[in-house]
Write a structure and sequence with these properties.
Layout: E1 7-8, E2 10-18, H1 23-36, E3 41-46, E4 55-63, E5 74-79, H2 85-90, E6 92-101, E7 115-119, H3 121-128, H4 132-151, H5 155-165, H6 170-190, E8 197-198, E9 209-212, H7 213-223, E10 228-231, H8 238-251, E11 262-265, H9 269-281, E12 286-290, H10 292-297, H11 299-308, E13 312-318, H12 335-339, E14 350-351, H13 356-373, E15 376-382, H14 383-387, E16 389-392, H15 411-415, H16 463-479, E17 488-490, E18 497-500, H17 505-517, E19 523-526, E20 529-530, H18 534-541, E21 546-550, H19 556-565, E22 572-576, H20 585-599
Parallel strand pairs: 1-8, 2-5, 5-6, 6-7, 10-11, 10-12, 12-13, 13-15, 14-15, 18-19, 18-21, 21-22
Antiparallel strand pairs: 2-4, 3-4, 9-16, 14-20, 17-19
Helix pairs in contact: 1-4, 1-5, 3-4, 4-6, 5-6, 7-8, 7-13, 17-20
């Protein structure tokens, strides 16, 4: 027999709603109220890819310890959708709580040992409001008031948030405060004894900010000098392009009102990348934002940009595939597609941010890299990072930083009379010098082609010219290592190790703590870019087993590791999570423990020579 859960600042609340019911703003209000109490939260929106009326969920993990990864199991379920009742009840932890609308009594199917918290929300709203839409919207606000009273969230915090949220819609302030008060009053009068889950004020958030990865990446593009964006709407990347437009309207407009940016919503992804390549060829810092299906359509233009050596930045906010797949679920399933985008032998640099702060940093870096290397550069996030708000370090920018345009010859350099070969490797680093259209009336012109050419951009199908060009492109790709972010190491002297990247990071950090608490030892390395830094290869070679944790079926990062370092595949063990939900620490710990049991090995400290 399980007693009721008793936890302070460490639990999971999940809201089960119907898409289009207006619950999103109320659920976000709940999450932000806990943040205002100084307790870290990690919310995740789980929404359908179809039309209004289908189930949607909003999960809030509360963790004073600062764990921001998803956690399996729910401690308090706010069950507002009768259609998903059975499914929702199955996820409630033993001893947990279920808040439901008791207007039409429903307690059957309640998990054994769970406490039912019935509130007649529909009846309360019918009494208070005459408008049908108001009844629906304020029912959501009302259950936030109930939760606040039960959990110990200060009402003054809610009031401040409501006033901030509706400061431009004054009539809604009092209406929302009224709904919150009604919910609070009902809980106070009728739910005596409260619940064992409590929020106590802390100062555990520090100076961190609360932002989603797509917004942070859009700001990175602004600060990175992007002036051209072409895109076609696709979940989960659309909000990145929309955020860029929002900030460009504020930060890319001269005092006289002249806009210094261009945003084009193209007819499809094929047109979008074509426009980006054209704009970049003309000298603009240009980008597109897309997801897996868009990457598929862009292959030919990406191959052209690689072979003609035109800079471009592509933000791929990954989702479940293949084909339409799971468009509103998260995966890391485009790693290989982006690393080798295009036909023939192509290799592209990849940047792999793990949180919104890195989305900002890597976004700005991507434009410098694309110009320096004269090639497409991919920033790979995913739905979990891109569309969910997360605590992260403040976005920081050095105003003394200048944009690095790479090897671009200006008028004076061309006017000096020096010989110019568009694809001539003058410095031995694989990166040639380029010119921009119109720089000089007589010098520096060349024919940009997607066919083979010699060092002076002249058409050539000579095998020697082709091989020399392809080898130079490979040298240039390897040259990228000097500018790419190095991996992040977490070493404790263990014989076995784990490699991870991107949105797996929060769950992995928690899993490493769980192993440490159990007396087990694992070294860890988070890769942040491709091609991999030599430290990554050395890390793999120095450990007995290396578990590669990623969110796809086929172990795509593992494949790239084997490809670059020619590693023994038997030593790299794939741990793949790809059901569309964010990976959890529990999954990682169980998967690694199972693999070690299968191999009859135990986590060990390395033998140190005397």
């Amino acid at each position: 027999m399980h007693g009721r859960l008793e936890r302070t600042n460490d639990f999971v609340v999940k809201f089960a709603n119907v898409n289009g019911s207006g619950s999103a703003s109320a659920n976000q209000l709940f999450a932000k109220a806990i943040l205002r109490m100084g307790v870290p939260v990690s919310p995740r929106n789980i929404f359908p890819s179809n039309i209004q009326g289908l189930p949607t969920w909003y999960e809030v993990r509360v963790s004073e310890a600062g764990y921001l990864g998803a956690r399996s199991g729910v401690d308090l379920m706010v069950a507002m959708n009768p259609e998903t009742w059975s499914q929702d009840m199955a996820s409630v932890e033993p001893g947990g709580y279920v808040l439901y609308d008791s207007t039409r009594a429903r307690t059957h199917g309640l998990p054994t040992g769970c406490q039912a918290l019935g509130v007649p929300l529909t009846a309360l709203c019918s009494e208070a409001y005459s408008d049908a839409r108001q009844r629906q919207l304020f029912k959501n606000t009302m259950y936030v008031g109930v939760l606040a009273q039960l959990l110990g969230i200060e009402f003054a915090v809610l009031e401040t948030l409501v006033r901030d949220q509706f400061k431009r819609k004054a009539p809604l302030i009092n209406a929302n405060l009224d709904a919150l008060s009604r919910g609070w009053a009902y809980a106070e009068a009728h739910l005596e004894g409260g619940i064992g889950l409590q929020i106590q004020r802390r100062d555990a958030c520090g100076d961190r900010i609360f932002i989603d990865g797509n917004t942070a990446a859009a700001l990175g593009a602004i600060y990175g000098g992007a002036t051209f964006s072409a895109w076609y709407p696709i979940t989960p990347s659309s909000s990145l392009a929309e955020a860029y437009m929002h900030y460009a309207e504020r930060l890319r407009v001269d005092p006289d009102g002249q806009r210094k940016y261009v945003v084009v919503q193209a007819e499809d992804e094929l047109a979008a990348i074509g426009m980006v390549v054209g704009a970049a060829w003309n000298g603009a810092r240009a980008f597109t934002a897309t997801s897996g299906p868009g990457i598929s359509l862009m292959q030919e233009f990406l191959g052209l940009a690689y072979f003609a050596e035109i800079p471009a930045v592509i933000f791929d906010v990954q989702r479940g595939g293949p084909s339409t797949g799971m468009p509103t679920r998260t995966q890391q399933s485009d790693v290989l597609a982006c690393a080798h985008a295009g036909h023939g032998d192509t290799r592209h640099p990849l940047l792999l941010p793990s949180d919104p702060r890195e989305c900002f940093d890597f976004s700005a870096l991507a434009f410098d890299l694309a110009d320096r290397l004269q090639t497409p550069v991919f920033v790979l996030s995913d739905l979990d990072i891109g569309m969910n708000e997360r605590l992260c370090d403040p976005l920081d920018w050095d105003d003394a930083r200048t944009l690095d345009r790479g090897k671009v010859l200006d008028f004076d350099a061309l006017d000096s009379g020096a010989a110019f070969g568009r694809y001539l490797d003058v410095d031995g680093d694989g990166i040639p010098y380029r010119t921009l259209p119109g720089t000089h009336p007589e010098r520096g012109a060349f024919f940009t082609r997607g066919t083979t050419k010699d060092a002076y951009a002249r058409y050539s199908e000579a095998g020697d010219d082709y091989v020399a060009n392809m080898e130079r492109l490979l040298r240039k790709y390897e040259r990228a290592l000097r500018w790419l972010p190095e991996p992040v190491l977490h070493e404790c002297g263990a014989s076995d190790a784990v490699i991870f990247f991107g949105s797996t990071a929060p769950a992995m950090h928690e899993a490493l703590d769980m192993f440490a608490d159990a007396g087990a030892a694992l070294d860890a390395l988070r890769v942040r870019s491709v091609p991999f830094h030599p430290k990554v290869g050395a890390f793999c070679e120095s450990h007995r087993l290396v578990f590669v944790v990623e969110q796809n079926r086929d172990g795509q990062l593992r494949s790239l590791l084997i490809e670059q370092f020619d590693l023994d595949p038997k030593r790299l063990v794939s741990l793949c999570h790809y059901d569309g939900t964010p990976i959890t620490a529990r999954f990682i710990v169980n998967a690694i423990s199972h693999q070690m049991d299968e191999r009859k090995v135990v986590p060990l400290r390395k033998q140190v020579e005397p």
